[in-house]
Fold these 2 entries.
Entry 1:
Amino acid sequence: MTRDIHTKPQLPKDFYVNDLKRVLTKLQRLAQDGPERLHCVFDFDHTLTAGKRPGENVGTWDIIDELLPEEGRKRHQEIFQAHRPHELAGKLTVHEAQGWWSETLNVLCSYNFNMRTAENDFLEAVTLRSGVTELFHLCDTAGIPTIVLSAGTKDVIELLLEKYHLKASAILATELEITPEGRVLGWKHDTLIHMLNKHEMGHAKLAGMREQRPNIILLADGLDDVRMVEGVDDVLRIRVVDPRKDESSAIESYLEKSFEAGFDLVIEHDLLPVVRLTEQLLGTHK
Ligand SMILES: [Mg+2]
Protein backbone atom coordinates (compact mmCIF):
# COMPACT_ATOMS: atom_id res chain seq x y z
CA MET A 1 0.00 0.00 0.00
CA THR A 2 1.41 3.39 -0.89
CA ARG A 3 0.38 6.68 0.52
CA ASP A 4 1.03 9.82 -1.46
CA ILE A 5 0.90 12.47 1.21
CA HIS A 6 1.59 15.17 -1.36
CA THR A 7 -1.74 14.60 -3.04
CA LYS A 8 -4.32 16.92 -1.57
CA PRO A 9 -7.33 14.96 -0.31
CA GLN A 10 -10.63 15.70 -1.97
CA LEU A 11 -14.12 15.09 -0.76
CA PRO A 12 -15.76 12.21 -2.66
CA LYS A 13 -19.23 12.89 -4.05
CA ASP A 14 -22.45 12.19 -2.15
CA PHE A 15 -21.43 13.99 1.03
CA TYR A 16 -23.28 17.02 2.33
CA VAL A 17 -20.76 19.50 3.68
CA ASN A 18 -21.04 22.87 5.35
CA ASP A 19 -17.46 23.97 5.86
CA LEU A 20 -15.48 22.36 3.04
CA LYS A 21 -12.23 24.09 3.97
CA ARG A 22 -12.36 22.72 7.50
CA VAL A 23 -13.15 19.22 6.25
CA LEU A 24 -10.30 19.26 3.73
CA THR A 25 -7.89 20.34 6.47
CA LYS A 26 -9.02 17.38 8.59
CA LEU A 27 -8.69 15.00 5.64
CA GLN A 28 -5.19 16.27 4.99
CA ARG A 29 -4.28 15.57 8.62
CA LEU A 30 -5.81 12.08 8.58
CA ALA A 31 -4.05 11.22 5.31
CA GLN A 32 -0.69 12.51 6.47
CA ASP A 33 -0.80 10.80 9.87
CA GLY A 34 -1.79 7.53 8.21
CA PRO A 35 -3.66 4.41 9.37
CA GLU A 36 -1.37 3.80 12.33
CA ARG A 37 -2.64 7.00 13.99
CA LEU A 38 -6.32 6.40 13.12
CA HIS A 39 -9.26 4.48 14.57
CA CYS A 40 -12.96 4.39 13.83
CA VAL A 41 -15.87 4.73 16.25
CA PHE A 42 -19.26 3.56 14.98
CA ASP A 43 -22.72 3.86 16.46
CA PHE A 44 -24.82 0.72 15.74
CA ASP A 45 -28.62 1.08 15.50
CA HIS A 46 -29.66 3.18 12.49
CA THR A 47 -26.00 3.84 11.57
CA LEU A 48 -24.59 0.44 10.62
CA THR A 49 -28.10 -1.00 10.25
CA ALA A 50 -30.81 -0.52 7.65
CA GLY A 51 -34.38 -1.79 7.71
CA LYS A 52 -35.29 -4.45 5.17
CA ARG A 53 -38.71 -2.86 4.68
CA PRO A 54 -38.41 0.33 2.59
CA GLY A 55 -38.27 3.44 4.72
CA GLU A 56 -38.29 1.49 7.97
CA ASN A 57 -35.12 1.02 9.97
CA VAL A 58 -36.01 -0.40 13.34
CA GLY A 59 -33.66 -0.35 16.29
CA THR A 60 -32.90 -3.05 18.84
CA TRP A 61 -35.37 -1.61 21.34
CA ASP A 62 -38.22 -1.47 18.80
CA ILE A 63 -37.77 -5.20 18.19
CA ILE A 64 -37.71 -6.02 21.91
CA ASP A 65 -40.78 -3.85 22.44
CA GLU A 66 -42.74 -6.12 20.09
CA LEU A 67 -42.12 -9.06 22.42
CA LEU A 68 -43.76 -7.40 25.41
CA PRO A 69 -47.41 -7.74 26.38
CA GLU A 70 -49.53 -4.66 25.67
CA GLU A 71 -49.16 -3.45 29.24
CA GLY A 72 -45.35 -3.59 28.91
CA ARG A 73 -45.34 -1.68 25.65
CA LYS A 74 -47.54 0.95 27.25
CA ARG A 75 -45.18 1.31 30.22
CA HIS A 76 -42.20 1.53 27.85
CA GLN A 77 -43.99 4.17 25.78
CA GLU A 78 -44.83 6.22 28.86
CA ILE A 79 -41.19 6.28 29.95
CA PHE A 80 -40.15 7.24 26.41
CA GLN A 81 -42.69 10.05 26.19
CA ALA A 82 -41.59 11.46 29.55
CA HIS A 83 -37.99 11.98 28.39
CA ARG A 84 -37.92 12.10 24.59
CA PRO A 85 -39.03 15.77 24.32
CA HIS A 86 -36.02 16.75 26.43
CA GLU A 87 -33.74 14.74 24.15
CA LEU A 88 -35.19 16.31 21.00
CA ALA A 89 -34.79 19.77 22.51
CA GLY A 90 -31.15 19.02 23.38
CA LYS A 91 -31.96 19.45 27.07
CA LEU A 92 -31.37 15.92 28.28
CA THR A 93 -28.92 15.76 31.17
CA VAL A 94 -26.65 12.79 31.88
CA HIS A 95 -28.56 12.23 35.12
CA GLU A 96 -31.91 12.10 33.32
CA ALA A 97 -30.52 9.86 30.54
CA GLN A 98 -29.19 7.43 33.12
CA GLY A 99 -32.58 7.34 34.88
CA TRP A 100 -34.44 6.99 31.57
CA TRP A 101 -32.32 4.09 30.38
CA SER A 102 -32.26 2.28 33.74
CA GLU A 103 -36.04 2.57 34.04
CA THR A 104 -36.48 1.31 30.48
CA LEU A 105 -34.21 -1.68 31.00
CA ASN A 106 -35.89 -2.52 34.31
CA VAL A 107 -39.32 -2.56 32.66
CA LEU A 108 -38.23 -4.51 29.57
CA CYS A 109 -36.27 -7.12 31.54
CA SER A 110 -39.13 -7.57 34.04
CA TYR A 111 -41.07 -9.34 31.28
CA ASN A 112 -38.28 -11.93 30.87
CA PHE A 113 -38.61 -11.87 27.08
CA ASN A 114 -36.69 -14.43 25.08
CA MET A 115 -33.50 -13.00 23.62
CA ARG A 116 -33.28 -15.69 20.93
CA THR A 117 -36.69 -14.62 19.62
CA ALA A 118 -35.58 -10.98 19.73
CA GLU A 119 -32.44 -11.87 17.78
CA ASN A 120 -34.34 -13.80 15.12
CA ASP A 121 -36.85 -10.97 14.76
CA PHE A 122 -33.99 -8.49 14.49
CA LEU A 123 -32.32 -10.46 11.70
CA GLU A 124 -35.69 -10.68 9.91
CA ALA A 125 -36.23 -6.93 10.01
CA VAL A 126 -32.74 -5.46 9.81
CA THR A 127 -29.69 -5.80 7.63
CA LEU A 128 -26.37 -4.01 7.41
CA ARG A 129 -26.34 -0.73 5.58
CA SER A 130 -24.69 -0.99 2.20
CA GLY A 131 -20.96 -0.27 2.49
CA VAL A 132 -20.55 -1.57 6.06
CA THR A 133 -18.87 -4.80 4.96
CA GLU A 134 -16.47 -2.93 2.68
CA LEU A 135 -15.67 -0.44 5.42
CA PHE A 136 -14.88 -3.15 8.00
CA HIS A 137 -12.73 -5.03 5.48
CA LEU A 138 -10.88 -1.88 4.51
CA CYS A 139 -10.14 -1.02 8.16
CA ASP A 140 -9.16 -4.61 8.89
CA THR A 141 -6.71 -4.74 5.98
CA ALA A 142 -5.16 -1.40 6.95
CA GLY A 143 -4.98 -2.32 10.65
CA ILE A 144 -7.39 0.43 11.70
CA PRO A 145 -9.31 -0.54 14.88
CA THR A 146 -13.10 -0.41 14.68
CA ILE A 147 -15.02 0.35 17.87
CA VAL A 148 -18.79 -0.13 18.00
CA LEU A 149 -20.24 2.02 20.78
CA SER A 150 -23.97 1.68 21.23
CA ALA A 151 -26.91 2.19 23.56
CA GLY A 152 -28.31 -1.07 22.17
CA THR A 153 -27.41 -4.53 23.47
CA LYS A 154 -24.13 -6.30 22.95
CA ASP A 155 -25.74 -9.63 21.99
CA VAL A 156 -27.65 -8.16 19.07
CA ILE A 157 -24.62 -6.30 17.76
CA GLU A 158 -22.44 -9.41 17.91
CA LEU A 159 -25.14 -11.43 16.19
CA LEU A 160 -25.52 -9.09 13.25
CA LEU A 161 -21.77 -8.69 12.75
CA GLU A 162 -21.26 -12.46 12.98
CA LYS A 163 -23.94 -13.04 10.38
CA TYR A 164 -21.88 -11.02 7.93
CA HIS A 165 -18.56 -12.43 9.15
CA LEU A 166 -17.39 -9.08 10.45
CA LYS A 167 -15.39 -8.47 13.56
CA ALA A 168 -15.16 -5.22 15.46
CA SER A 169 -12.03 -4.55 17.51
CA ALA A 170 -14.32 -3.79 20.47
CA ILE A 171 -18.06 -3.63 21.13
CA LEU A 172 -19.23 -1.44 23.96
CA ALA A 173 -22.92 -1.81 24.71
CA THR A 174 -25.20 -2.80 27.57
CA GLU A 175 -25.00 -6.48 28.48
CA LEU A 176 -28.11 -8.41 29.52
CA GLU A 177 -28.31 -11.32 31.95
CA ILE A 178 -29.62 -14.23 29.92
CA THR A 179 -30.25 -17.87 30.79
CA PRO A 180 -28.76 -20.56 28.50
CA GLU A 181 -32.26 -20.91 27.00
CA GLY A 182 -32.29 -17.22 26.10
CA ARG A 183 -34.62 -15.94 28.84
CA VAL A 184 -33.67 -12.40 29.87
CA LEU A 185 -33.41 -12.03 33.63
CA GLY A 186 -31.96 -8.54 33.94
CA TRP A 187 -29.12 -6.32 32.86
CA LYS A 188 -25.59 -5.74 34.04
CA HIS A 189 -25.61 -2.35 35.70
CA ASP A 190 -21.90 -1.74 35.30
CA THR A 191 -22.21 -2.05 31.51
CA LEU A 192 -24.98 0.53 31.05
CA ILE A 193 -24.52 2.64 27.96
CA HIS A 194 -27.17 5.25 27.20
CA MET A 195 -27.31 8.06 24.70
CA LEU A 196 -25.27 10.46 26.83
CA ASN A 197 -22.53 8.20 28.21
CA LYS A 198 -21.86 6.78 24.77
CA HIS A 199 -18.54 8.37 25.22
CA GLU A 200 -15.33 6.74 24.15
CA MET A 201 -13.08 8.20 26.82
CA GLY A 202 -15.22 6.88 29.67
CA HIS A 203 -14.56 3.22 28.96
CA ALA A 204 -11.60 1.51 30.56
CA LYS A 205 -11.45 -0.98 27.70
CA LEU A 206 -10.43 1.79 25.37
CA ALA A 207 -7.89 3.44 27.62
CA GLY A 208 -4.77 4.07 25.65
CA MET A 209 -6.43 3.88 22.25
CA ARG A 210 -6.63 7.64 21.87
CA GLU A 211 -3.05 8.13 22.94
CA GLN A 212 -1.76 5.75 20.31
CA ARG A 213 -4.30 6.70 17.67
CA PRO A 214 -5.41 10.29 18.11
CA ASN A 215 -7.32 10.55 14.83
CA ILE A 216 -10.87 9.30 14.61
CA ILE A 217 -13.56 8.79 12.01
CA LEU A 218 -16.87 8.89 13.87
CA LEU A 219 -19.96 7.51 12.18
CA ALA A 220 -23.35 7.97 13.86
CA ASP A 221 -26.96 8.94 13.24
CA GLY A 222 -28.17 10.59 16.47
CA LEU A 223 -27.61 14.28 17.08
CA ASP A 224 -26.16 13.65 20.57
CA ASP A 225 -23.79 11.09 19.05
CA VAL A 226 -21.66 14.04 18.00
CA ARG A 227 -20.23 13.87 21.55
CA MET A 228 -19.35 10.16 21.40
CA VAL A 229 -15.74 11.22 21.05
CA GLU A 230 -13.89 14.32 22.15
CA GLY A 231 -11.70 16.47 19.99
CA VAL A 232 -12.08 19.00 17.22
CA ASP A 233 -9.30 18.93 14.64
CA ASP A 234 -8.53 15.21 15.00
CA VAL A 235 -12.10 13.90 14.67
CA LEU A 236 -14.04 13.66 11.43
CA ARG A 237 -17.70 13.41 12.39
CA ILE A 238 -20.04 11.93 9.81
CA ARG A 239 -23.79 11.74 10.36
CA VAL A 240 -25.98 9.17 8.60
CA VAL A 241 -29.45 10.46 7.78
CA ASP A 242 -32.05 8.25 9.42
CA PRO A 243 -34.80 10.35 11.01
CA ARG A 244 -36.97 8.70 13.67
CA LYS A 245 -40.74 8.70 13.37
CA ASP A 246 -40.97 11.82 15.54
CA GLU A 247 -38.28 13.77 13.67
CA SER A 248 -38.60 15.87 10.54
CA SER A 249 -37.28 14.11 7.45
CA ALA A 250 -36.83 17.38 5.53
CA ILE A 251 -33.16 17.30 4.55
CA GLU A 252 -32.65 21.07 4.91
CA SER A 253 -33.52 21.15 8.60
CA TYR A 254 -31.67 17.88 9.15
CA LEU A 255 -28.49 19.34 7.67
CA GLU A 256 -28.81 22.58 9.57
CA LYS A 257 -29.15 20.74 12.90
CA SER A 258 -26.32 18.34 12.07
CA PHE A 259 -23.79 21.04 11.19
CA GLU A 260 -24.88 23.23 14.06
CA ALA A 261 -24.31 20.31 16.45
CA GLY A 262 -20.77 19.84 15.11
CA PHE A 263 -20.97 17.13 12.44
CA ASP A 264 -18.57 17.74 9.56
CA LEU A 265 -20.34 15.68 6.93
CA VAL A 266 -23.74 14.13 6.33
CA ILE A 267 -24.61 11.16 4.11
CA GLU A 268 -27.85 9.52 3.05
CA HIS A 269 -28.79 5.91 2.28
CA ASP A 270 -25.51 4.01 2.34
CA LEU A 271 -21.94 4.15 3.62
CA LEU A 272 -20.22 3.80 0.26
CA PRO A 273 -19.06 7.45 0.28
CA VAL A 274 -17.28 6.70 3.60
CA VAL A 275 -15.62 3.70 1.98
CA ARG A 276 -14.38 5.89 -0.89
CA LEU A 277 -13.20 8.52 1.55
CA THR A 278 -11.29 5.98 3.65
CA GLU A 279 -9.76 4.44 0.52
CA GLN A 280 -8.57 7.85 -0.50
CA LEU A 281 -7.07 8.53 2.91
CA LEU A 282 -5.22 5.23 2.68
CA GLY A 283 -4.06 5.95 -0.83
CA THR A 284 -5.76 2.87 -2.24
CA HIS A 285 -8.52 4.59 -4.17
CA LYS A 286 -9.02 2.84 -7.46
MG1 LIG B 1 -28.08 5.16 16.36
Note: Residues 43, 45-47, 221-222 surround magnesium ion (CB under 6 Å).
Entry 2:
Amino acid sequence: MPHKRKRRLSGHVFIATSLDGYIARSNGSLDWLSTHAASADDHGYRNFIRGIDGIVMGRGTFETVLSFDAWPYEKPVVVMSRSLTHADVRADVIDKVTVTDLVPTAVMEMLSAKGWRRAYVDGGQVIQSFLRAGLIDDMVVTRIPVLLGSGLPLFGPLDRDLRLKHLGTTAFRSGLVQSKYEILNPFP
Ligand SMILES: NC(=O)c1ccc[n+]([C@@H]2O[C@H](COP(=O)([O-])OP(=O)(O)OC[C@H]3O[C@@H](n4cnc5c(N)ncnc54)[C@H](OP(=O)(O)O)[C@@H]3O)[C@@H](O)[C@H]2O)c1
Protein backbone atom coordinates (compact mmCIF):
# COMPACT_ATOMS: atom_id res chain seq x y z
CA MET A 1 0.00 0.00 0.00
CA PRO A 2 1.67 3.30 -1.00
CA HIS A 3 2.48 5.60 1.90
CA LYS A 4 0.29 8.69 1.81
CA ARG A 5 1.15 11.40 4.32
CA LYS A 6 -1.88 12.96 5.96
CA ARG A 7 -1.99 16.64 5.02
CA ARG A 8 -5.05 18.78 4.80
CA LEU A 9 -3.40 21.91 3.36
CA SER A 10 -2.46 21.75 -0.32
CA GLY A 11 0.23 23.88 -1.98
CA HIS A 12 -0.32 25.53 -5.36
CA VAL A 13 1.99 27.42 -7.68
CA PHE A 14 0.86 30.05 -10.20
CA ILE A 15 3.85 31.68 -11.80
CA ALA A 16 5.19 33.22 -15.00
CA THR A 17 8.57 32.37 -16.48
CA SER A 18 10.58 33.38 -19.49
CA LEU A 19 10.81 30.64 -22.12
CA ASP A 20 14.25 29.83 -20.71
CA GLY A 21 12.84 29.32 -17.22
CA TYR A 22 13.57 32.54 -15.31
CA ILE A 23 11.11 34.27 -12.99
CA ALA A 24 13.08 37.52 -12.72
CA ARG A 25 16.28 39.09 -13.98
CA SER A 26 19.31 38.56 -11.73
CA ASN A 27 18.64 41.94 -10.10
CA GLY A 28 15.02 40.92 -9.41
CA SER A 29 13.55 43.06 -12.20
CA LEU A 30 10.21 42.01 -13.73
CA ASP A 31 10.27 44.60 -16.55
CA TRP A 32 10.13 41.81 -19.21
CA LEU A 33 7.01 40.42 -17.54
CA SER A 34 4.98 43.60 -17.52
CA THR A 35 5.88 44.31 -21.16
CA HIS A 36 4.77 40.89 -22.38
CA ALA A 37 1.90 40.18 -20.00
CA ALA A 38 0.20 43.57 -20.48
CA SER A 39 -3.21 42.56 -21.79
CA ALA A 40 -6.85 42.84 -20.73
CA ASP A 41 -6.82 39.08 -20.07
CA ASP A 42 -5.61 38.20 -16.55
CA HIS A 43 -4.68 34.69 -17.73
CA GLY A 44 -6.70 33.02 -14.97
CA TYR A 45 -5.05 34.83 -12.06
CA ARG A 46 -8.23 36.19 -10.41
CA ASN A 47 -9.91 32.81 -10.59
CA PHE A 48 -6.84 31.14 -9.09
CA ILE A 49 -6.53 33.65 -6.24
CA ARG A 50 -10.23 33.31 -5.39
CA GLY A 51 -9.61 29.63 -4.63
CA ILE A 52 -6.76 30.03 -2.15
CA ASP A 53 -6.75 30.89 1.55
CA GLY A 54 -3.50 32.84 1.54
CA ILE A 55 -0.02 33.24 0.10
CA VAL A 56 3.30 31.88 1.34
CA MET A 57 6.21 33.74 -0.25
CA GLY A 58 9.96 34.08 0.11
CA ARG A 59 11.63 37.22 1.38
CA GLY A 60 12.87 37.95 -2.18
CA THR A 61 9.35 38.05 -3.59
CA PHE A 62 8.10 40.07 -0.60
CA GLU A 63 10.74 42.73 -1.25
CA THR A 64 9.66 42.99 -4.89
CA VAL A 65 5.99 43.27 -3.93
CA LEU A 66 6.85 46.05 -1.47
CA SER A 67 8.21 48.07 -4.40
CA PHE A 68 4.83 47.97 -6.20
CA ASP A 69 2.67 51.11 -6.12
CA ALA A 70 0.05 49.37 -3.98
CA TRP A 71 -0.16 46.17 -1.91
CA PRO A 72 -1.75 43.72 -4.39
CA TYR A 73 -3.22 41.05 -2.08
CA GLU A 74 -6.49 40.85 -0.20
CA LYS A 75 -5.65 37.48 1.36
CA PRO A 76 -3.19 36.90 4.20
CA VAL A 77 0.50 36.70 3.29
CA VAL A 78 3.13 34.66 5.13
CA VAL A 79 6.72 35.69 4.39
CA MET A 80 9.41 33.07 4.91
CA SER A 81 12.65 34.62 6.10
CA ARG A 82 15.49 33.81 8.42
CA SER A 83 16.77 37.39 8.27
CA LEU A 84 13.58 39.47 8.71
CA THR A 85 11.36 39.62 11.76
CA HIS A 86 7.87 41.03 12.11
CA ALA A 87 9.46 44.19 13.54
CA ASP A 88 11.16 44.82 10.15
CA VAL A 89 7.87 44.90 8.26
CA ARG A 90 6.76 48.30 6.96
CA ALA A 91 3.96 49.87 9.00
CA ASP A 92 1.50 50.08 6.08
CA VAL A 93 1.52 46.30 5.54
CA ILE A 94 2.17 45.03 9.05
CA ASP A 95 -1.41 43.83 9.56
CA LYS A 96 -1.38 42.02 6.19
CA VAL A 97 1.80 40.01 6.69
CA THR A 98 3.20 37.37 9.05
CA VAL A 99 6.94 36.66 9.00
CA THR A 100 8.13 33.17 9.85
CA ASP A 101 11.48 31.39 10.07
CA LEU A 102 9.86 27.95 10.21
CA VAL A 103 10.83 25.27 7.68
CA PRO A 104 8.30 24.55 4.89
CA THR A 105 6.65 21.50 6.54
CA ALA A 106 6.19 23.41 9.80
CA VAL A 107 4.78 26.44 7.94
CA MET A 108 2.16 24.23 6.29
CA GLU A 109 1.30 22.58 9.61
CA MET A 110 0.91 25.98 11.27
CA LEU A 111 -1.34 27.27 8.46
CA SER A 112 -3.36 24.05 8.38
CA ALA A 113 -3.99 24.48 12.12
CA LYS A 114 -5.27 27.99 11.34
CA GLY A 115 -7.81 26.48 8.93
CA TRP A 116 -6.05 27.11 5.60
CA ARG A 117 -6.90 24.46 2.97
CA ARG A 118 -5.15 25.82 -0.14
CA ALA A 119 -1.91 27.83 -0.04
CA TYR A 120 -0.44 29.82 -2.95
CA VAL A 121 3.31 29.24 -2.76
CA ASP A 122 5.38 31.94 -4.47
CA GLY A 123 9.05 32.82 -5.07
CA GLY A 124 11.65 30.70 -6.87
CA GLN A 125 13.69 29.52 -3.90
CA VAL A 126 10.63 28.93 -1.75
CA ILE A 127 8.84 26.97 -4.50
CA GLN A 128 11.98 24.85 -4.91
CA SER A 129 12.15 24.06 -1.20
CA PHE A 130 8.41 23.23 -1.10
CA LEU A 131 8.83 20.93 -4.11
CA ARG A 132 11.73 19.16 -2.37
CA ALA A 133 9.58 18.75 0.75
CA GLY A 134 6.63 17.28 -1.19
CA LEU A 135 4.36 20.20 -0.35
CA ILE A 136 3.24 21.25 -3.85
CA ASP A 137 0.16 19.59 -5.33
CA ASP A 138 -0.02 21.40 -8.64
CA MET A 139 1.59 24.15 -10.67
CA VAL A 140 0.31 26.57 -13.27
CA VAL A 141 3.31 27.82 -15.23
CA THR A 142 2.79 30.59 -17.78
CA ARG A 143 5.58 30.92 -20.32
CA ILE A 144 6.28 34.41 -21.64
CA PRO A 145 7.72 34.50 -25.17
CA VAL A 146 11.08 35.99 -24.27
CA LEU A 147 14.57 34.59 -23.68
CA LEU A 148 16.41 36.37 -20.87
CA GLY A 149 19.63 34.35 -21.01
CA SER A 150 20.16 34.63 -17.26
CA GLY A 151 18.21 35.43 -14.14
CA LEU A 152 16.56 33.86 -11.11
CA PRO A 153 15.41 30.34 -12.03
CA LEU A 154 12.02 28.84 -11.22
CA PHE A 155 13.42 25.35 -10.77
CA GLY A 156 16.61 24.05 -9.20
CA PRO A 157 18.28 20.94 -7.82
CA LEU A 158 16.14 18.03 -6.60
CA ASP A 159 17.05 14.94 -4.60
CA ARG A 160 15.08 12.77 -7.04
CA ASP A 161 12.91 13.14 -10.12
CA LEU A 162 9.45 14.57 -9.59
CA ARG A 163 6.97 13.18 -12.09
CA LEU A 164 4.26 15.48 -13.34
CA LYS A 165 0.93 14.91 -15.01
CA HIS A 166 0.08 17.46 -17.68
CA LEU A 167 -3.46 18.64 -16.98
CA GLY A 168 -3.82 21.08 -19.84
CA THR A 169 -2.30 23.92 -21.83
CA THR A 170 -3.86 27.17 -23.03
CA ALA A 171 -2.25 29.33 -25.68
CA PHE A 172 -3.47 32.90 -25.16
CA ARG A 173 -3.85 35.48 -27.91
CA SER A 174 -1.29 37.54 -26.01
CA GLY A 175 1.34 34.90 -26.89
CA LEU A 176 1.50 33.53 -23.35
CA VAL A 177 1.32 29.73 -23.06
CA GLN A 178 -0.02 28.39 -19.77
CA SER A 179 0.32 24.79 -18.64
CA LYS A 180 -1.03 23.12 -15.54
CA TYR A 181 0.72 20.16 -13.95
CA GLU A 182 -0.10 17.90 -11.04
CA ILE A 183 2.81 16.48 -9.03
CA LEU A 184 2.40 12.71 -9.19
CA ASN A 185 4.93 11.58 -6.58
CA PRO A 186 5.31 14.47 -4.13
CA PHE A 187 6.48 12.33 -1.21
CA PRO A 188 9.81 10.49 -1.02
N1 LIG B 1 7.66 35.67 -12.58
C1 LIG B 1 6.84 35.54 -11.56
O1 LIG B 1 5.65 35.17 -11.72
C2 LIG B 1 7.36 35.77 -10.18
C3 LIG B 1 6.64 35.30 -9.07
C4 LIG B 1 7.18 35.46 -7.81
C5 LIG B 1 8.40 36.09 -7.65
N2 LIG B 1 9.06 36.55 -8.74
C6 LIG B 1 10.36 37.23 -8.59
O2 LIG B 1 11.30 36.30 -8.07
C7 LIG B 1 12.25 37.01 -7.28
C8 LIG B 1 12.37 36.32 -5.93
O3 LIG B 1 12.58 34.94 -6.10
P1 LIG B 1 13.78 34.21 -5.36
O4 LIG B 1 13.89 32.83 -5.88
O5 LIG B 1 14.98 35.06 -5.41
O6 LIG B 1 13.34 34.26 -3.85
P2 LIG B 1 12.11 33.87 -2.91
O7 LIG B 1 11.81 32.43 -2.96
O8 LIG B 1 11.01 34.84 -3.09
O9 LIG B 1 12.80 34.23 -1.50
C9 LIG B 1 13.96 33.53 -1.10
C10 LIG B 1 14.28 33.93 0.31
O10 LIG B 1 13.27 33.42 1.17
C11 LIG B 1 13.86 33.13 2.44
N3 LIG B 1 13.56 31.75 2.87
C12 LIG B 1 13.15 31.40 4.11
N4 LIG B 1 12.96 30.09 4.19
C13 LIG B 1 13.23 29.58 2.98
C14 LIG B 1 13.20 28.28 2.47
N5 LIG B 1 12.85 27.22 3.21
N6 LIG B 1 13.55 28.10 1.19
C15 LIG B 1 13.89 29.14 0.41
N7 LIG B 1 13.95 30.43 0.85
C16 LIG B 1 13.61 30.64 2.15
C17 LIG B 1 15.33 33.39 2.30
O11 LIG B 1 15.50 34.74 2.77
P3 LIG B 1 16.28 35.10 4.13
O12 LIG B 1 17.68 35.34 3.70
O13 LIG B 1 15.61 36.31 4.63
O14 LIG B 1 16.13 33.91 5.03
C18 LIG B 1 15.57 33.36 0.82
O15 LIG B 1 16.66 34.14 0.40
C19 LIG B 1 11.76 38.42 -7.14
O16 LIG B 1 12.47 39.22 -8.06
C20 LIG B 1 10.31 38.32 -7.55
O17 LIG B 1 9.81 39.50 -8.12
C21 LIG B 1 8.58 36.41 -9.99
Note: The beta strands are 10-18, 22-24, 54-58, 77-80, 97-100, 118-122, 138-144, 152-153, 164-171, 177-183.
